[in-house]
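Please, is this right?
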Amino acid sequence: MASESESGNAAAPHPHHPEGTEALAHIAIDYRPEACRHEPDAGEIHVTYDHRHPGRDGSRWRSRRRFLPGSAVAATIRAPAGDTAGLNYNLYLSSLECSRDMDEIDFEFLGHDKCAVQTNYHVGGQGGREQIHRLPFDSSDGFHHYAIAWDASAIEWRVDGELIRREERRQGEPWPEKPMYLYASVWDASDINEGRWTGTYHGNDAPYVCSYKDVVVPTVAFSVEEEQECTEDADAAAEAAAADGATDAAAVDAGATED
């Protein structure tokens, strides 16, 4: 069972927040809550990866509600500092993390290159739509704004208010339409594609902390109450994430588009 927490909205809205959103009010921590520090008064969430301490080697949090197409999610994120090779840290939408037929839209940071971010989307458990985007900054140097907007016809990814990718629905092609939670996590993906996806974890600068603040989600008009919990245990969830990562990495290795 996921643990629950509440988030405050202590700061003024970020200038890049999309319209039709509101501060994330509740989160669930569904993997290693001891490695996720939530500061509701500050509206901040900090997720830690530290191989030296059992139970603190990564964590995952998510929204309590699922969201319908027609709005957006966003957060300001500061990536972990130091040598982060091997780690994956992220912000993504998923209809249900442990489901093999999930829809998903994501930002993924690949630890071996902190000046890049990967975008992708999945329909019915099928991905293979990866793109790597160069960033004009080191994602660990400070907080930067990341936003995903989607509806029945298009998906847009923005960084600091700038559009970096837009995908338009083509007639007859599959499209992510399931209600989706907002998720974020940090984990060691060294084993994916023999380290070619995120690099190989060294751990020289542990602990690694990925920080999220100013998190916004669609308003109630674009959300539905939670209907089910993911009942698989943590090991099964990790295996599912690893399998998904392997699919992403294989596609990238085969020649993902670079912007």
